[in-house]
TrEMBL record:
Belongs to the GST superfamily. This is Glutathione S-transferase. SUPFAM superfamilies: GST C-terminal domain-like, Thioredoxin-like. Residues 90-216 form the GST C-terminal domain.
Protein backbone atom coordinates (compact mmCIF):
# COMPACT_ATOMS: atom_id res chain seq x y z
CA UNK A 1 0.00 0.00 0.00
CA UNK A 2 1.41 3.40 -0.87
CA UNK A 3 1.73 5.97 1.91
CA UNK A 4 3.47 9.20 2.80
CA UNK A 5 5.29 7.68 5.76
CA UNK A 6 8.89 8.44 6.69
CA UNK A 7 10.55 6.29 9.34
CA UNK A 8 13.35 7.81 11.43
CA UNK A 9 15.08 4.93 13.10
CA UNK A 10 18.06 2.70 13.80
CA UNK A 11 17.85 -1.09 14.11
CA UNK A 12 17.64 -1.27 17.91
CA UNK A 13 14.97 -3.12 19.95
CA UNK A 14 12.76 -0.02 20.09
CA UNK A 15 13.50 1.00 16.52
CA UNK A 16 12.55 -2.31 14.95
CA UNK A 17 9.10 -2.32 16.54
CA UNK A 18 8.20 0.40 14.03
CA UNK A 19 9.93 -1.15 11.00
CA UNK A 20 8.52 -4.64 11.64
CA UNK A 21 5.01 -3.16 11.96
CA UNK A 22 5.42 -1.24 8.69
CA UNK A 23 6.70 -4.39 6.96
CA UNK A 24 3.91 -6.58 8.34
CA UNK A 25 1.34 -4.11 7.01
CA UNK A 26 3.01 -4.05 3.60
CA UNK A 27 3.24 -0.26 3.66
CA UNK A 28 5.72 1.60 1.49
CA UNK A 29 7.81 4.07 3.47
CA UNK A 30 10.95 6.12 3.27
CA UNK A 31 13.67 5.45 5.84
CA UNK A 32 15.94 8.10 7.31
CA UNK A 33 18.69 6.27 9.25
CA UNK A 34 19.40 7.92 12.61
CA UNK A 35 22.70 6.57 13.86
CA UNK A 36 22.15 7.07 17.59
CA UNK A 37 25.88 6.68 18.21
CA UNK A 38 26.38 10.06 16.53
CA UNK A 39 23.60 11.84 18.49
CA UNK A 40 21.64 13.06 15.44
CA UNK A 41 18.57 12.32 17.57
CA UNK A 42 19.43 15.33 19.75
CA UNK A 43 19.57 17.81 16.84
CA UNK A 44 16.93 20.55 16.63
CA UNK A 45 15.37 19.33 13.38
CA UNK A 46 14.84 15.87 14.89
CA UNK A 47 13.48 17.21 18.21
CA UNK A 48 10.65 18.75 16.16
CA UNK A 49 9.71 15.18 15.17
CA UNK A 50 10.42 13.58 18.55
CA UNK A 51 10.82 16.09 21.41
CA UNK A 52 12.24 13.21 23.48
CA UNK A 53 15.28 12.93 21.21
CA UNK A 54 15.08 9.17 20.71
CA UNK A 55 14.24 6.72 17.97
CA UNK A 56 11.95 5.54 16.50
CA UNK A 57 9.67 8.26 15.15
CA UNK A 58 7.59 8.53 12.01
CA UNK A 59 5.90 11.24 10.03
CA UNK A 60 2.82 10.47 7.98
CA UNK A 61 2.28 13.53 5.82
CA UNK A 62 2.16 16.39 8.33
CA UNK A 63 1.46 14.10 11.30
CA UNK A 64 4.38 13.23 13.57
CA UNK A 65 4.23 10.15 15.82
CA UNK A 66 6.85 9.33 18.46
CA UNK A 67 7.19 6.56 21.08
CA UNK A 68 7.32 3.10 19.54
CA UNK A 69 4.08 2.00 21.25
CA UNK A 70 2.09 4.91 19.89
CA UNK A 71 3.61 4.39 16.43
CA UNK A 72 2.37 0.78 16.48
CA UNK A 73 -1.09 1.80 17.68
CA UNK A 74 -1.28 4.60 15.11
CA UNK A 75 -0.32 2.28 12.24
CA UNK A 76 -2.73 -0.43 13.40
CA UNK A 77 -5.61 2.05 13.80
CA UNK A 78 -5.09 3.74 10.46
CA UNK A 79 -3.77 1.02 8.18
CA UNK A 80 -4.63 -2.39 9.61
CA UNK A 81 -8.19 -2.34 8.38
CA UNK A 82 -8.01 -6.08 7.61
CA UNK A 83 -6.89 -6.72 11.22
CA UNK A 84 -3.81 -8.61 10.10
CA UNK A 85 -1.76 -7.75 13.19
CA UNK A 86 -4.29 -6.20 15.55
CA UNK A 87 -7.64 -6.84 17.15
CA UNK A 88 -10.64 -4.58 16.60
CA UNK A 89 -11.44 -1.97 19.26
CA UNK A 90 -14.32 -3.07 21.44
CA UNK A 91 -13.15 -6.68 21.68
CA UNK A 92 -11.70 -8.27 24.76
CA UNK A 93 -8.60 -9.26 22.74
CA UNK A 94 -8.04 -5.60 21.88
CA UNK A 95 -7.77 -4.82 25.59
CA UNK A 96 -5.36 -7.79 26.04
CA UNK A 97 -3.32 -6.44 23.12
CA UNK A 98 -3.14 -3.02 24.79
CA UNK A 99 -2.20 -4.56 28.14
CA UNK A 100 0.69 -6.61 26.71
CA UNK A 101 1.87 -3.66 24.63
CA UNK A 102 1.98 -1.49 27.75
CA UNK A 103 3.68 -4.31 29.66
CA UNK A 104 6.49 -4.05 27.13
CA UNK A 105 6.56 -0.23 27.03
CA UNK A 106 6.50 0.28 30.80
CA UNK A 107 8.26 -2.91 31.93
CA UNK A 108 10.28 -5.11 29.64
CA UNK A 109 11.81 -2.33 27.49
CA UNK A 110 12.94 -0.03 30.32
CA UNK A 111 14.14 -2.90 32.55
CA UNK A 112 16.02 -4.82 29.85
CA UNK A 113 17.39 -1.49 28.61
CA UNK A 114 18.86 -0.86 32.08
CA UNK A 115 20.19 -4.44 32.19
CA UNK A 116 21.98 -3.79 28.88
CA UNK A 117 23.35 -0.53 30.23
CA UNK A 118 24.78 -1.99 33.45
CA UNK A 119 26.01 -5.24 31.86
CA UNK A 120 27.47 -3.79 28.65
CA UNK A 121 27.86 -0.05 28.47
CA UNK A 122 28.21 1.65 31.89
CA UNK A 123 31.59 3.30 32.45
CA UNK A 124 31.74 1.81 35.93
CA UNK A 125 30.96 -1.74 37.11
CA UNK A 126 28.02 -2.11 39.49
CA UNK A 127 27.28 -5.73 40.36
CA UNK A 128 24.18 -4.48 42.19
CA UNK A 129 22.86 -2.78 39.03
CA UNK A 130 23.73 -5.77 36.85
CA UNK A 131 21.93 -8.23 39.15
CA UNK A 132 18.94 -6.01 39.84
CA UNK A 133 18.09 -5.43 36.18
CA UNK A 134 18.94 -8.89 34.84
CA UNK A 135 16.84 -10.47 37.62
CA UNK A 136 13.95 -8.15 36.78
CA UNK A 137 14.28 -8.90 33.06
CA UNK A 138 14.12 -12.63 33.82
CA UNK A 139 11.10 -12.10 36.05
CA UNK A 140 9.35 -10.35 33.16
CA UNK A 141 10.33 -13.21 30.81
CA UNK A 142 8.64 -15.55 33.33
CA UNK A 143 5.46 -13.45 33.10
CA UNK A 144 5.56 -13.81 29.29
CA UNK A 145 6.26 -17.54 29.68
CA UNK A 146 3.16 -18.02 31.86
CA UNK A 147 0.99 -16.21 29.34
CA UNK A 148 2.41 -18.12 26.36
CA UNK A 149 1.85 -21.44 28.09
CA UNK A 150 -1.90 -20.78 27.93
CA UNK A 151 -2.15 -18.73 24.73
CA UNK A 152 -0.46 -19.02 21.32
CA UNK A 153 0.15 -15.27 21.22
CA UNK A 154 0.05 -12.57 23.86
CA UNK A 155 -3.34 -11.09 23.02
CA UNK A 156 -5.04 -14.31 21.90
CA UNK A 157 -4.75 -16.75 19.04
CA UNK A 158 -3.48 -14.08 16.62
CA UNK A 159 -0.01 -12.53 16.25
CA UNK A 160 -0.33 -8.80 16.94
CA UNK A 161 1.61 -5.62 17.63
CA UNK A 162 1.84 -6.78 21.27
CA UNK A 163 3.94 -9.75 20.11
CA UNK A 164 6.08 -7.55 17.86
CA UNK A 165 6.83 -5.17 20.76
CA UNK A 166 7.86 -7.89 23.21
CA UNK A 167 9.67 -9.99 20.61
CA UNK A 168 11.88 -7.03 19.68
CA UNK A 169 13.41 -7.13 23.17
CA UNK A 170 13.31 -10.89 23.80
CA UNK A 171 15.31 -11.55 20.63
CA UNK A 172 18.37 -9.79 22.06
CA UNK A 173 18.17 -11.22 25.62
CA UNK A 174 20.25 -14.34 24.90
CA UNK A 175 23.01 -12.61 22.90
CA UNK A 176 23.37 -9.44 24.96
CA UNK A 177 22.66 -10.71 28.47
CA UNK A 178 23.33 -14.45 28.16
CA UNK A 179 19.74 -15.24 29.19
CA UNK A 180 19.09 -18.91 28.45
CA UNK A 181 15.74 -19.04 26.68
CA UNK A 182 15.45 -22.79 27.28
CA UNK A 183 14.49 -21.80 30.85
CA UNK A 184 11.37 -20.31 29.21
CA UNK A 185 10.29 -23.00 26.68
CA UNK A 186 7.03 -21.42 25.50
CA UNK A 187 8.70 -18.02 25.11
CA UNK A 188 11.55 -19.65 23.19
CA UNK A 189 9.18 -21.40 20.77
CA UNK A 190 7.15 -18.19 20.26
CA UNK A 191 10.31 -16.16 19.69
CA UNK A 192 11.74 -18.65 17.18
CA UNK A 193 8.48 -18.70 15.23
CA UNK A 194 8.17 -14.94 15.10
CA UNK A 195 11.82 -14.68 14.04
CA UNK A 196 11.07 -16.74 10.92
CA UNK A 197 8.52 -14.26 9.53
CA UNK A 198 9.75 -12.49 6.40
CA UNK A 199 8.48 -9.10 7.61
CA UNK A 200 10.32 -9.57 10.90
CA UNK A 201 13.58 -10.47 9.18
CA UNK A 202 13.32 -7.41 6.94
CA UNK A 203 12.14 -5.06 9.70
CA UNK A 204 14.80 -6.21 12.15
CA UNK A 205 17.47 -4.98 9.74
CA UNK A 206 15.87 -1.65 8.87
CA UNK A 207 17.75 0.54 8.48
CA UNK A 208 20.65 -1.62 7.45
CA UNK A 209 23.52 -0.66 9.76
CA UNK A 210 25.95 -2.97 7.95
CA UNK A 211 26.29 -5.16 11.06
CA UNK A 212 25.37 -8.85 11.04
CA UNK A 213 24.01 -10.94 13.95
CA UNK A 214 27.54 -12.35 14.34
CA UNK A 215 28.96 -8.81 14.59
CA UNK A 216 26.52 -8.04 17.40
CA UNK A 217 27.33 -11.25 19.27
CA UNK A 218 31.03 -10.34 19.11
CA UNK A 219 30.38 -6.74 20.15
CA UNK A 220 28.31 -7.83 23.18
CA UNK A 221 30.81 -10.54 24.21
CA UNK A 222 33.64 -7.96 24.08
CA UNK A 223 31.59 -5.46 26.09
CA UNK A 224 30.86 -8.10 28.78
CA UNK A 225 34.51 -9.14 28.95
CA UNK A 226 35.55 -5.48 29.37
CA UNK A 227 32.99 -5.04 32.17
CA UNK A 228 34.10 -8.27 33.90
CA UNK A 229 37.70 -7.08 33.87
CA UNK A 230 36.76 -3.99 35.93
CA UNK A 231 36.51 -3.85 39.71
CA UNK A 232 33.03 -3.61 41.21
CA UNK A 233 32.49 -0.04 42.47
CA UNK A 234 29.36 -0.60 44.61
CA UNK A 235 29.65 0.97 48.09
CA UNK A 236 28.27 -0.84 51.13
N1 LIG B 1 10.07 4.75 25.09
C1 LIG B 1 10.79 5.02 23.87
C2 LIG B 1 12.24 4.62 24.05
C3 LIG B 1 13.07 4.97 22.85
C4 LIG B 1 14.55 4.70 23.08
O1 LIG B 1 15.01 4.60 24.23
N2 LIG B 1 15.28 4.57 21.98
C5 LIG B 1 16.73 4.36 22.06
C6 LIG B 1 17.16 3.27 21.10
S1 LIG B 1 16.50 1.68 21.54
C7 LIG B 1 17.43 5.65 21.69
O2 LIG B 1 16.98 6.41 20.87
N3 LIG B 1 18.60 5.88 22.31
C8 LIG B 1 19.43 7.01 22.01
C9 LIG B 1 19.41 8.06 23.08
O3 LIG B 1 18.92 7.79 24.19
O4 LIG B 1 19.89 9.16 22.81
C10 LIG B 1 10.15 4.24 22.73
O5 LIG B 1 9.67 3.12 22.98
O6 LIG B 1 10.11 4.74 21.59
Amino acid sequence: MSSDITLYSWSTPNGIKASITLEELGLSYKTVPINIGTNIQKEDWFLKINPNGRIPAITDGSQRVFESGSIMLYLADKYDTDRKISYAPGTSEHIEQLSWLMFQMGGLGPMQGQANHFRLYANTRSDYGIKRYIDETKRLYEVLESRLKESAYLAGDKYTIADIANYSWVRVGPGALEIDLSEFPSLKKWSEEIGKRAAVQKGAHTPDTGKSEADFLELWANARAKMDARTNTDKN
